[in-house]
Design brief:
Strand content: under 5%
Distance between the termini: 80 Å
Keywords: Membrane, TPR repeat, Transmembrane, Transmembrane helix
Order of helices and strands: HHHHHHHHHH
Number of helices: 10
Radius of gyration: 29 Å
Shape: elongated
Helix content: 55-70%
Number of domains: 1
InterPro entries: TPR-like_helical_dom_sf, TPR_rpt
Length: about 250
């Protein structure tokens, strides 16, 4: 029978094996460290965005929210929510509705109602601007979109007030913290529907003003040119509102 060769493990081999195990585990440790650092960084940046918005520094809040967009795999909806809310407070409603619409698509269902509140308010404010400018058809389309956002809250359970409690979103623009998102959406629905009814009671006045007649009761050539210019501007505004309010936004399955 052949002699069995005994394999002895020397202390040097043990140390070499330990070094190899440490080396192979090093990327995992570094990845975990990077993960924790990234979370801490995102938390601080999000707080900067909130603080800037609460103090009226909307541009700074938008910049801080921009920083949240980089390598944010964890809760990307927050960056769009914060930036959209800051844009709305800065009265940049087109940018606000774009970001808040994206936030609504990305947000988990238990936070979607809060996003809906701000998105509906942004559309409502944009509709108010159209109304004040006399672009009533465009305003009506935008109000329709606000109502569509609100109505989508039914599916998300935003109006189940018995189970819902006031929440603390990443950036809450509402002063009454005792109201639930469902309460706020209900209030917004009442306001927007009232504005829609008011639109039906007034004639279209492009540019927010009427046309003056000349002394003989007719319109002057200058007035005719102004009318045509107003109508062209009205058509442009209606088309823009149709694209933003009555197009892809209203048809999204919210």
């Amino acid at each position: 029978m052949a002699d069995r060769t005994e394999r002895r493990v020397t202390p040097t081999a043990i140390r070499r094996r330990r070094r190899r195990l440490l080396w192979w585990s090093l990327p995992v440790v570094l990845l975990a460290l990077a993960f924790s650092v990234k979370l801490a960084s995102l938390s601080l940046t999000a707080q900067d965005a909130i603080t800037a918005s609460e103090t009226g520094l909307f541009d700074e809040s938008i910049e801080a929210s921009d920083a949240l967009m980089t390598l944010n795999w964890f809760e990307p909806w927050i960056a769009y929510y914060d930036r959209g809310t800051a844009s709305a407070r800065a009265q940049s409603y087109n940018d606000a509705t774009d970001d808040l619409s994206t936030a609504l698509e990305l947000a988990p269902q238990d936070r979607s109602c809060e996003v809906r509140v701000n998105l509906a308010l942004a559309w409502e404010e944009l509709g108010d601007i159209y109304t004040e400018a006399g672009y009533l058809r465009g305003a009506s389309l935008i109000y329709d979109t606000a109502l569509a956002v609100i109505a989508g809250g039914e599916e998300d359970g935003c109006f189940t007030s018995d189970e819902q409690e006031p929440t603390d979103p990443p950036q809450d623009p509402n002063e009454n913290e005792s109201e639930t998102p469902g309460d706020q959406l209900g209030d917004a629905q009442d306001r927007v529907e009232g504005k829609q009814d008011a639109l039906e009671q007034q004639p279209e006045q492009p540019g927010g003003g009427g046309d003056e007649e000349d002394a003989d009761g007719g319109s002057s050539p200058e007035d005719d040119l102004q009318d045509r210019g107003d109508q062209a501007e009205q058509d442009r505004r209606d088309q823009e509102a149709d694209q933003r309010g009555g197009g892809e936004y209203a048809e999204k399955p919210w």
